[in-house]
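Worked Example 4.2. Read the sequence first, then its structure tokens.
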Amino acid sequence: MSEEAMVAFRRYIESKDELKGLDYEFDELLHQCFHVEHYLKTFHHFNFTVKTKKPGSADWTSAMYFAQVKSICMIKRYVCYPLEQDQYGECYACENHGMGELRHPLEGIYDMGREDIQFPFYYQDSDSDEFDATTGGSESSDEDMS
């Protein structure tokens, strides 16, 4: 998955004249969240760090970035933004997936999901190890089904 985040990062630095010629290397994938709203709307959010070094410098610095990889009809669209300290933009999709720690930019163009769409897969804890698709995982008798 870090390859997708780095594609977004490379496209980001290619679009910025002040970053051309910068040495960089992937550092760490911190968080990720994959969201499917429907067949034609899927996206993947990433938080990751990249080490960078200015030309002629011996010092490497690490910075955190947000990236989105969005698939539309088998075509991938990439966005990437640097994240500042304590920057927590809103994203219903990641929050609904329980990924509240994944950070988002305060401004920018990225999919946030919808507040009313919840993650479609769930598991209800029970004493049984078997999953019953008709009840969403809970045990029930034939009498309960009527």
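Now turn to a second chain, presented in exactly the same format:
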Amino acid sequence: MKLTSIFTILTAAVLSTAAGPPAKTPKIPGISYLYTVNITAGETYPVGNGPHGLRLVVPITGGTFAGPKLRGTVMPVGGEWGTLDTGHANGSFYPDVRQTFKTDDGAYIQIFESGASQTDGSAHVSLKFDTGSEKYYWLNRAVGFGILNRLTDTSLTIDAFIVNPPA
């Protein structure tokens, strides 16, 4: 009986809090353009079906990137380990990319991307950065996203942006 009473009190407290004053509209963060990367890729290797669809592995062979705060080359390491959803008629693609940038001033930045294809043929990806460079260390804390567009079977671009605090 005591357990029922405690449960009743807690439920009433939660419901009264949920019915409180309306929440303020949150401030919307801004975005800043970071760079555009042009990636060249090698041959696609369909490595087989797995629990999430057909895994496609594509090595990165190089490329370039440029933006207002950084520019350089894409190192010929890394690649894409995307998954094609073969279980549904829409055939959604889920990119999973690892790439390494070398900036014009010699710093290395690793980028990890994952996301989902869109109905317009692009893919929206989240970006995570990893660098030990003091100059670019701010990227380790950045929340990034990008729009990936496949140009040919062996080339693609990603327009990258970062989220800024609300004004």
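Notes for the reader: The two ends are 52 Å apart (CA to CA). The domain at 30-164 is CATH 2.40.160.20 (Porin).
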